[in-house]
Amino acid sequence: MSQLAGMGRKAASHLMLQSKQWWGVSLGVLILAASGLFGGLDSAPPPPPTAVNSEIDAGPWKVTITGARLVGELPPMRLSDKGNMWIVVLATVEITADQTWRHLNEIVQLDPIDGLKRKVSRNSAKVPVHFNDGIVLMRDAAKIDQLNPGMPEKIAIFWELTAGAKIPAEVKVYIGHREHRINTLTNHLEWMDLSEENRAVAVPVVDKRESTAATQ
Amino acid sequence: MSQPTFGQPQPEPGDAAAAAGTASSAGAAAATAAAATSAGATAASQYAPAVPRAGRHRNLSPLQRFLARASSVIVVIAALGAGNLVLKLTPDTDGRERPFLAGGEQGDTVDADRFKATLVQVRTAAVVKVSNATHDTQGVWVILRVRFESQEEPLAIAYAALVDSQDRSFFATDRIRQPLVDGSRILQPGIRVEGDVAFEVPHDAVGLTAQFATAVVDRRMQAVTDISLPLGSGVWLNREPAAIEPIEVNP
To answer: Which of B92, B94, B138 is opposite residue A151, by nearest beta carbon?
Structure first.
């Protein structure tokens, strides 16, 4: 017993003699070890998909995904094969940047689906996605590739699904994010990719092929 | 025995510590150590004279030393503040490389270095008509009749925008085809080409100016027109669809 107490006293006196740096490093190692033990060093899980009809502020634009449809031929979008179908994601987009935004491709991207005609690409977050086949303004069915600031518009975003492909009951779309900051290479104030903020929205797909076929 | 150098302790006769200060060889150092041991280091240091310190801080009181250090810190902070002020007063990269705006009014021929532009007419409407198709808007259609002329070489106008008092830029609409300003219509020098250009702006856009340039994206340090539109804050909208007129050459 007295031997044990002696060892304790020896250890205590040894610790008292250590430098501040030694204490700092030891404390840091202990904190890291404890964090690792309880999963603190694991990568954070992605945020849960945002619900349909929720507005997402993604920097230069605000996006509300309102639904998804499966349709046949729907002018002005022309299918490459009459048996194919369009997956259409409906969204309301408002440009909050101070100028017209050209090239709307990155705003809504589709999570890969088997049977889609467009090949899988990688977005700025290196996530595999399908960029769209075309965007149509709901107001007058004009094909567009730009939107004006301060003028929120309902748009339809198209992806072509090949005939015989499995019809998805739900699709997942990613909303591209950007932040306004200085580009360290050019020193200009620009809307830069904020890839880690890509938010996903799970959208149920409503089959409207019969109604679109009737309008042809 | 070497001469005492500036800043070193001055020897006192019979002082062991002072002797150590003047010793220069290894033998002398050893002798000093022995002397210190024998005479008693404590006694030696007790009777050592105040050591004059070198430089401008010698013999400073604690308050003076504090003030000297504090003034150094203040000088550094003042230098950083002055640098920050200079940075704030000088234009940033975007400001330094902004486009060269060539101003004018309706009817003026505005010289934008490589081309000249004249604003001939301004119309506003709720609907525009192209062939049989009509296009409405949630804001206002602004249709400009513009005449361009290249000055020296073939070129194309690839940038057309209305800029409002909030510095928002509204590009020429892509809902209808506008070859005159989408970079596809080549202007030959000396041949004037006139046509309609349609823009869509929100109702709260006021103080509009028309900007045209040859550069599609990068307009840094480029000549850009900046023609004021004769529109008041409240725009009367024609209920009749405004037709987009065809392009004319040498009107």
So the answer is: B138
Q: Are strands A101-102 and A146-147 parallel, antiparallel or unpaired?
A: antiparallel
**Nearest Cα residue to B224 out of B166, B169, B144, B179:** B169
**Ramachandran angles phi, psi of A84, nearest 5°:** -75, 175
Please state the separation of Cα A44 from the chain's center in Å.
15
CA distance B119 to B227: 7
**What pLDDT does residue B228 have?**
96
Residue A143 corresponds to which amino acid?
Answer: K
Across the interface, of B93, B176, B202, the residue whose CB is closest to A151 is B202
Nearest Cβ partner for A144 among B97, B166, B174: B174
Nearest one of B164, B161, B230, B243 to B199, comparing CA atoms: B161
B223-228 and B100-104 strand pairing: parallel
Query: How far is the C-alpha of A37 from the C-alpha of A40, rounded, in Å?
Result: 7
Tell me the per-residue pLDDT of B42-91, one tens digit each, with 9 for 90 and over: 544 455 555 555 666 567 888 988 999 999 999 999 999 999 999 889 88
Interface pTM, i.e. ipTM: 0.78
Q: Distance between the two ends of chain A, CA-based, in angstroms?
A: 95
- Name residue, tokens 């998805």: A168
Task: List all residues 6 or more positions away from A54 whose beta carbon is below 8 Å from its beta carbon.
Answer: A64, A65, A201
User: CA-CA distance, A105 to B58, in Å (whole number)?
Assistant: 72
H or E element in which residue A55 lies: strand A55-57
DSSP calls for A43-94: PPPPPPPBPTT-EEE-SSEEEEEEEEEEES-BTTB--SSTT-EEEEEEEEEE
Q: With a threshold of 0.80, does the pTM exceed it?
A: no
CA distance B3 to B23: 10
Q: Report the C-alpha gap between B170 and B208 in whole angstroms.
A: 10
A148 touches B: beta carbon within 8 Å: yes
A and B: number of Cβ contacts within 8 A: 59
The answer to whether residues B224 and B212 touch, using CB atoms and an 8 Å cutoff, is yes
Q: What is the mean pLDDT of residues B30-36?
A: 46
